[in-house]
C-alpha cells in the first residue's frame, strides 16, 4: 500500500516516465516482505534500456526492474535509497519522508 503523495506528484512522475526520463517518486509504504522499510522510491523510466543502464551505473541488478507498462520502475529501499536520493540532490524527498 502506498501513501503520502499527492495526485499531482504522481501525475508529474507518470508524465516524466512516459517521456523516457528517469523520474523519482518516494512514498510511504507497507510491505510485509520488508518489515523494516517504511518508504520506497520508485525510479521510473519508459525507456527500459535507459532504466537498465541507470541500474547498472548505481550497482543495481536490472533483473529487478518491474516491467509494468506503461510505467516500468525499480524500487529503491533502505540504505541504497538514501544513498541515491542524496547523490541525485533530492533533499526534499529525504527530509519529507524522514530518511535523513
Verbal overview:
By secondary structure, this protein is of the alpha+beta class. It has one domain. 38% of the residues lie in helices and 19% in strands. It has helices spanning 7-18, 48-57, 78-87, 91-96, and strands at residues 2-3, 23-29, 39-44, 73-76. It has a 4-stranded antiparallel β-sheet with strand order 1-2-3-4. The chain is globular.
How would you sum up this structure in a few lines?
This protein is α+β, with helices and mostly antiparallel strands and 100 residues long.
Topology:
Elements: E1 2-3, H1 7-18, E2 23-29, E3 39-44, H2 48-57, E4 73-76, H3 78-87, H4 91-96
Antiparallel strand pairs: 1-2, 2-3, 3-4
Question: Which class best fits the helix and strand makeup?
Answer: alpha+beta
Terminal-residue CA separation: 23 Å
The major β-sheet equals: 4 strands, antiparallel
Percent strand = 15-25%
The strand order across the widest sheet is: 1-2-3-4
Which keywords apply here?
four-stranded antiparallel β-sheet; alpha+beta; 100 residues
Amino acid at each position: 500500500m502506498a501513501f503520502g503523495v499527492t495526485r499531482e506528484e504522481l501525475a508529474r512522475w507518470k508524465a516524466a516516465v512516459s517521456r523516457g526520463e528517469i523520474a523519482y517518486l518516494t512514498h510511504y509504504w507497507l510491505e510485509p516482505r520488508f518489515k523494516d522499510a517504511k518508504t520506497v522510491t520508485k525510479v521510473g523510466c519508459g525507456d527500459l534500456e535507459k532504466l537498465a543502464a541507470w541500474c547498472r551505473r548505481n550497482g543495481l541488478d536490472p533483473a529487478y526492474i518491474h516491467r509494468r507498462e506503461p510505467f516500468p520502475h525499480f524500487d529503491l529501499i533502505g540504505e541504497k535509497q538514501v544513498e541515491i536520493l542524496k547523490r541525485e540532490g533530492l533533499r526534499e524527498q529525504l527530509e519529507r519522508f524522514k530518511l535523513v
